[in-house]
Amino acid sequence: xxxxxxILGGGIVGCAVSYELSKYNLNIxxxxxxxxxxxxxxxxxSSIVYDGLECEDTLLAKLELMxxxxxxxxxxxxxxxxKKKGYLLVANSEKSEEKLIRIYxxxxxxxxxxxxxxxxxDIHEIEPGLNENARKAIYxxxxxxxxxxxxxxxxxxxxxxxxxxxxxxxxxxxxxxxxKGFKVIxxxxxxxxxxxxxxxxxxxxxxxxxxxxxxxxxYLKYFLVGKNTERDxxxxxxxxxxxxxxxxxxPTRKNGLLIGIKNGEKISYEKALxxxxxxxxxxxxxxxxxxxxxxFYNDSLIIDDSLIDKGYIKxxxxxxxxxxxxxxxxxxxxxxxxxxxxxxLKKDFVDRRRxxxxxxxxxxxxxxxxxxxxxxxxxxxxxxxxxxxxxxxxAIRRPLGARTIEGIKRRTGAALGNCKGSxxxxxxxxxxxxxxxxxxxxxxxxxxxxxIITGRIKEFDEM
Length: 463
Ligand SMILES: Cc1cc2nc3c(=O)[nH]c(=O)nc-3n(C[C@H](O)[C@H](O)[C@H](O)COP(=O)(O)OP(=O)(O)OC[C@H]3O[C@@H](n4cnc5c(N)ncnc54)[C@H](O)[C@@H]3O)c2cc1C
Fold this sequence. Notes:
Residues 380-433 form the BFD-like [2Fe-2S]-binding domain. The longest helix is centred in the N-terminal third of the chain and has 21 residues, at 58-78. The chain has helices at residues 12-21, 58-78, 94-109, 120-126, 148-161, 269-279, 322-340, 364-373, 389-397, 405-412, 425-436; strands spanning 3-8, 28-32, 47-49, 82-84, 87-91, 115-119, 136-140, 144-146, 165-168, 172-177, 182-186, 190-198, 217-225, 236-239, 246-251, 257-263, 288-297, 302-307, 312-316, 380-382, 387-388. The protein is globular, with a radius of gyration of 23 Å. Helix 1 (12-21) packs parallel to helix 7. By secondary structure, it is α+β, with helices and mostly antiparallel strands. Strands 1, 2, 9, 10, 11, 12, 18 and 19 form an eight-stranded mixed beta sheet that branches. The protein has an eight-stranded mixed beta sheet with strand order 6-7-5-14-15-16-13-17, sandwiched between helices. The chain has a three-stranded antiparallel beta sheet with strand order 3-8-4. The protein folds into three domains: 1-81 and 144-213 and 299-353, FAD/NAD(P)-binding domain; 87-141 and 217-297, 2-Layer Sandwich (D-Amino Acid Oxidase, Chain A, domain 2), CATH 3.30.9.10; 361-462, Arc Repressor Mutant, subunit A (Orthogonal Bundle). The protein is built from eleven helices and 21 strands. Bound molecules: flavin-adenine dinucleotide. Residues 8-14, 31-34, 39-43, 47-48, 148, 171-172, 199-202, 294, 318-324 line the site of flavin-adenine dinucleotide.
């Protein structure tokens, strides 16, 4: 057998399971079709860590609550930013007030602590920027925000350092049952293994049986509002869902505001903004820095181990709270795999990320000391976010280092400031080209064929 376990998909779930399994004496490979891990994890650098309060499905709510409890410990171990932020679930009408009370009773039955019912005046004391029609709310002190990229990349880096073989840019075409184990066929190779964990959305592999996921997908529009909002919203705020429509906001890690509007049908930019303004005051259009469209996923997420006797597990479905659930999903899947294979914990497992510096967060004294050791940290490349050449080089040279422009942006925060990279993207591309020893025309934004330079204008030897 080439491997004990092959993990398909390098999203946050695949990376988290690879981290958990790398604690054991197993030969593991992870296959990802993109050039980097966690490419689809989020639109921006902040995701909500839920606590099971808002989730319709009881089992998924339990996974959220368990994940919520694990997240602060993981963030501190991986040295990544996790900010506690309250969650305000607001009812604006009589109908939604009744629903809110049902949600509150359900949360108490689920054993969720630190939640409070607030009336209108309490709500405005906590969030003065909310419109007057906020009648009642549930306030939870359990929730927070985390960077989904940092979490996924931390999992991946530690797994890589502990021997997991990451095969990036390789697409799985089929998984076939063989007499003992599986054959995983990719566009480049054929591998055999004892067990397969499939975290990709692919449903048509030879091994797959009927699809049991109930898909519930709606339209989502996101507005990213810059730091300078006139109101300072401190909490994650969501309105109780009515007629398939829900608006929610969260403060981002960079003190901006992300506002999402979920709707059963596709609505225009203007209509979305008009609806948001009925919920949240003072969102001047000039403060909107970015606008995204996506799907809102509320599938019946399942860990399908119906073929576990053969050695196949599939994590199927997409859910808006999946980042919160990931640490728990990883523990469950790891336990199932370990129970099926004859393996023991490794003695030399290193549960730590290699050190890195975030220059913008350091004192001048620390900065000076680091620059003395490595002068690349003395050259600022991204002025908006204050990211140095040293940080960009480190992002490329680290375990499982960046090989794309997006990979560098996500690992360092470069080019994510106000100028959106107009001042630094070329410099970043030329550092990447130099570091990986590839001509600029081969440097890609993220996926295959996303080259940032399509060709030379003129070859010198033609002149
Ligand atoms: C806009 C948005 C906002 C979100 N906000 C939150 C939030 O605030 N809080 C929260 O808890 N969750 C949030 N989520 C949910 C969460 O980000 C996702 O559900 C989660 O990232 C899914 O991770 P995954 O690993 O299961 O799947 P994916 O990220 O989809 O990973 C699957 C991987 O498999 C790879 N792949 C696919 N096909 C193949 C193939 N044939 N061969 C090899 N590789 C393949 C893909 O390239 C991908 O990298 C949000 C999701 C979205 C889209």
